[in-house]
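Long-time lurker, first post.

We've been arguing in lab meeting about whether guanosine-5'-diphosphate would sit comfortably in this protein at all. Half the group thinks yes, half thinks no, and nobody has a model to point at. So I'm putting the question to the forum: if I give you the sequence and the SMILES, can you give me back a predicted structure of the complex? Inputs are below. Any interpretation is welcome too.
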Amino acid sequence: MKTAIDVSVVVPTYRERDNLAELTERLFSSLKEAGLQGELIIVDDDSQDGTIDICRSLAEHFPVRLITRIGERGLATAVIRGLQEAQGECLVVMDADLSHPPEAVPELLRPLQTQQADFVIGSRYVPGGSLDESWGLFRRLNSRVAGWLARGLTTARDPMAGFFSLHRRHLTNLNGLNPCGYKIGLEIMVRCGLSRIVEVPIHFTDRTRGESKLSLKEQGLYLKHLARLYAFRFPEAVRFSTFTAVGISGLVLDMLSFALLAPGVGIRIARAAAIWMAMTWNYELNRSITFRQTETSGRLVQYLKFCGACLFGAMVSWSISVGLIEQTTFFSRHPITAAGLGPVFAAVVNYAACRMWVFRSRPAPASPATAPGFAGLLRKPSVPAGDTSAMLNMSGESQNSAALLATTSDTPERTAA
Ligand SMILES: Nc1nc2c(ncn2[C@@H]2O[C@H](COP(=O)(O)OP(=O)(O)O)[C@@H](O)[C@H]2O)c(=O)[nH]1
Ligand SMILES: [Mg+2]
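Top reply:
Settle the argument with this. Predicted structure of the protein with guanosine-5'-diphosphate, as tokens:
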């Protein structure tokens, strides 16, 4: 359904009072020049720096809406919140600190309008794009390395960018977004499966007012976020690597236990006990790490199945090793190499058996593929319990958002009216 608004620009803010007026004026002047109807949605985490007053006066002249989140912090979740409220056909996300030139917004929309792309990035790292001179070597290197680490997830040269646009119909998995840290653009690209990406060169200007909120902690969270996204994108490869690492740790435990037990109870019993301990160890680790997303019911039955599945792998390992040694001249001269090959095959067989039999996937949730469109989201907003928000509506009509945000708690709201 065509709405009157062509583009909703979502801007997360925390203590950005001094940048808001210039951002708003430059943004709406560039939209006007391009003949676009837009709205600006500012999602502020209760900065208490006068943001509410500034937005109120800006809303007298421009279609500005302010959402104040109380008791919640975080750039990425703030962006998600803004996207939930957006009414435009196209969505743009950008920073408030004027690092991202508001004049580039119409250019970011063009590839969407011509259906050349599903996701457009205001990019520092394509020809024509650039960074502020003030960026030191460490910051440049840090940004590049962070980008390279994401290469397995997307072809974008600047996947970390906070300046991007997409069509709202491609935001199919809004409720399934689960970013930790800053990189909401990367999260959307990967979780919504957006691979037709166009990068528009921009000059990234360092902020001149206010302070950066990027901390070292956020950089650590980025690595965690990447791990989650790789697991989402390549679930079997990541599970198989984890399964192998668990197997290696089990092998070490097996050998240590055997070395400790053998002198006391003899080789046969020590071997059996060590194998059982390693099997139990592997089961526990696989249950809590490798296959934590899968079915967890019926622990005893699952454990017995796991032992049964491993037993099969052990037999495969034994047969391959013995077969190679007995049937080929090469391995009869190198029996240890043959013994080493057996467990490799056994690991693959064990993994397949566990995947098919012991840790089967949960039935797919009903929602993501058929997630409601925006109309649905606005009818039934997914505001977290306890979130108290207030909204300053466009055109200066201050409006308590109770009607729109039907699930807000009964804690007193901070209203902008
Ligand atoms: N709502 C909200 N916005 C935030 C938060 N942290 C940062 N921002 C905003 O996100 C944008 C980028 O943050 P900035 O500090 O400039 O990060 P940097 O550019 O990586 O140094 C700015 O508009 C910030 O005001 C937060 O916790 N909540
Ligand atoms: Mg910044």
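For your lab meeting: The CA atoms of residues 59 and 396 lie 5 Å apart. Confidence is low (pLDDT under 50) at residues 366-390, 393-417. Whichever side wins, do check it experimentally.
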